[in-house]
Amino acid sequence: MFDLELLKTFVCVVDAGGFTRAGERVNRTQSTVSQQIRKLEEQLARPLILRQRAGKSIQLTEDGERLLGYARRLVGLAQEANAMMQASGTQSVIRLGVPEDFDVKRLIHLLADFARLHPSVRLDTVNGLSTELRAQLENRDLDLALVKRNVGDGAALAAWPEHLQWVAGQQLEIRQGSLPLVVFAQGCLYRNHAIHSLEASGRDWHIAFASQSLISIQAAVSANLGISLLPSSAVQDDHRVLLDQPGLSAPPATELALLSATRLLPVAQQHLVDYLIEQLRPPA
Question: Taking 90 as the threshold, does the pLDDT of residue 174 lie above it?
Answer without folding.
Answer: no
